[in-house]
Amino acid sequence: MESTIRDLRADEVEVRVGRVTQKGATFLLYKDARCDMNILDETFGMFGWQREHIILNGKEFCKVSIFDGETGEWVSKMDTGTESNTEKEKGQSSDAFKRACFNVGIGRELYTAPFIFIPLETEQMGQGWKLKKQPNLDVTFMEVANKKITALEITNMDTGEIVYTFPKKIAKKGNYTTKTDYVLPVCDMCGKEILSAGAYSSQQIAELGIKNFGKKLCIDCYRKEKGKQNG
User: Fold this and answer.
1) Which residue stretches of the chain are H helix?
2) In whole angstroms, what is the distance from residue 30 CA to residue 34 CA?
3) Rounded distance, CA 16 to CA 31, Å?
4) Nearest CA-CA partner of 217 in 179, 189, 198
5) According to the model, what pLDDT value does residue 1 have?
6) What pTM value is reported for the model?
7) Bridge partners of 230?
8) What is the mean pLDDT of the chain?
9) N or C: which end of the chain has fewer CB within 10 A?
10) Once rounded to an integer, what is the mean pLDDT over residues 149-171?
11) How far apart are CA 62 and CA 43, in angstroms?
12) If DSSP codes are grouped into helix, strand and coil, which group holds residue 153?
């Protein structure tokens, strides 16, 4: 059996909240069961793998088996899962399958993900904190070398703003797959793309220009217009 399981693409990786603090939240990377099934089909063929769910000592396990054409035998990996907060049985079955796929080799690079903390507005809830608004985050760039994540970019889809990069500055991006081509607003004065600045996203800066001057403005042109107004 010589089939090699490829690295995950950026569009196959999801982002979920880990822990919320007063200043923001940590986030975790994960793959879903559909991603695992697609890669199994792609790598071994529709009839080259199978899954089986088994109850052992009261716990549900999932066994993923790969057919070895050279020996004519099935090679299996198995793991258990945990219940979800919504549909407990379905969540446990799905989690067991995803963990078994980790054992097969799908998405192991996710275990090498860097610490992800994103500053966000939070509010107190009892003894802890919760997000005021759940952000719509996507992994828009990911580079993997030797099964280790070496570069990562996360974008807030609601604003188009890049909210996390690893390393802190990605010098140059090569060929990669993203979920969406993001179109930044363009300044009506200078014609350049409106970039985020400080705590303001590119969209917020554009809307500020429209509100105060009736046109979309980058931060530099906004300051120029502001100076004329005050001057």
Assistant:
1) 33-44, 88-104, 202-213, 219-230
2) 12
3) 10
4) 189
5) 54
6) 0.69
7) none
8) 86
9) C
10) 85
11) 19
12) strand
